[in-house]
Amino acid sequence: MRGRKRVAILISGRGSNMTALIESARKPAYPAEIAVVLSNRPGAPGLLRAREAGIAAEAIDHKAFASRSDFEAALEARLEEHVVDVVALAGFMRLMTAAFVDRWAGRMINIHPALLPSFPGLATHERALEAGVRVHGCTVHYVTPGMDEGPIIAQAVVPVLAGDSAADLGARVLRAEHRLYPAALARVVRGEAPIVSGRVEIGREDLVYCD
Question: Which pLDDT tens digit goes with each residue over 109-128?
Fold first, then answer.
C-alpha cells in the first residue's frame, strides 16, 4: 500500500505557489508528495525551479494540439503515468472542459487570489481596490466546470491598507497564499475536506488571518 498521496502541480508561469507546496512536501510529516509538475507553456520559469528542486517537470504545449480535448488527453496520460492522486492548480491559465473536470471531481483544487465568491477571474487586486473593500485575500477551492465556482476549502484574509497599490495588495495576498495552499492541500489529501451537498464543512483551518 502506498503511503503519501501523489500530487501533480499544474502551472503556466513562475510557480511561486508551486514552490510553497514543494517546500511543505519536503517535511516528513506532510501527507503528500509532489509527483510531477506540468505546464502548458514550455517556457514557464516554474519548470526550471521544479527541476532544481528535484521534481519531475514536463511541458505539454497546448498550442501543439488541435483542440482542448486533445490537449487534455495528453495531460491525462501524464497524470496516469505518474500515478497521480490529486491535482493542484497553481497559476494554471487554462480552462478545462467539463469532461476533464468531472473525471477529477473532488481530486482537483485551485488557489484564487481573492475571497470568493467575490472577484472571480482576473485583475482581482485592482478590482478589490476599486470596490473599496477593507479586507481581501485568497481562496483554495475544488475545481468545477464553472470558473472559480467550486466548493471553498479554505480562505486567508489580509487587510487593505491606506495607499495600497494593486502591487502592494497583491504581494500581501501572495504571502498569504504561500501559507494557505499547503495547509489546504494537506487537509484534502487527508480526506478532511469532503464535499457534502455541494459544500465543504467549515473546519478550524478554513479561515486564516494574515498580517
Answer: 999 999 999 999 999 999 99
How far apart CA 50 and CA 10 sit, in angstroms, is: 11
Q: Is 16 annotated as a binding residue?
A: yes
C-alpha cell at 163: 495607499
Q: Please say whether the beta carbons of 180 and 140 come within 8 A.
A: yes
| 11, amino acid identity | I
Q: Which of 200, 172, 204, 8 is nearest to 89 (CA)?
A: 8
**Does 197 appear as a known binding residue?**
no
The response to whether 191 counts as a known ligand-binding position is no
Residues 1-34 pLDDT 10s: 468 999 999 999 999 999 999 999 999 999 999 9
- The answer to whether the beta carbons of residues 106 and 195 sit under 8 Å apart is yes
Residue positions annotated with a catalytic role: 112
Provide the 10 A C-beta neighbour count for residue 207: 14
Q: Which amino acid is at 211?
A: D
